[in-house]
Amino acid sequence: MITVPLFQVNKFFTAVIFTGTSLTNHLAGVSYVTTDKSGSDDIKIITSWPGEQGTSSKTPTRIAYALENPRMPRNKWGFEVEPRLVSYSWTKLLLDKNATVGEHDDPSLSKMAGSGILKLPSFRKASGVCEDFLREVYVYVSKRLCDELTADTFETMPMECWITLPAIWSDEAKDATLDAAKKAGFGNRVGDEVFTIAEPEAAAIATLKGYAAPNAPNPIKVSQYVILLTFSEINEIPSQRKTCSSVTAVVVLLT
After folding, report:
1. What's the domain count of the chain?
2. What is the mean pLDDT of the chain?
């Protein structure tokens, strides 16, 4: 999957941290780069997450509340969430009123993601659960950046965050995701900003960057046409409600 940076940090106060957050139905990933870098190879992908013994480019979009799990001293998220815990996942889909769970949904989804799939706790709405999960991500990634750049450097660097969203996402769901991200901490520091971008658009930007590089073998030209093809994989139920989707993109250059 292609992502744009979730955070962008401004080194020496002339650079910015670009960070890219990919928030899919069941996984979340973060990449980042500072603006004093120029190549896509400079983008760093976080591959170490709380609760994961090995390496992974993404963490599950699951959260378990201490309020519902008495033996937990704090909320757990991602790989920290064990199967026995009361937890919630795939909550992002509930931000779109067109995505509802029903009796005809594929039961394998629940087996794969747990009993908390597309469900909510009694004390939190969908936007609140997404906010809580994103806050955990924000706190963790901020600490990682502090450790790598030093706390003083991180505190003085503006950070620009881009969150990728499905192309079929409704405006209501886009606004709800952006609002949840802001409440979670993204874009709250002086100079920080947070935006959303459609996954196909992010893929196109990442792909075309190579064609725009100096001495590219087939450089893109002014007024050249670009065809962006998107392919959606959607689980439909008889009542025409969508329960999940993933979108990839292919860019074709016409010479």
Report:
1. 1
2. 77
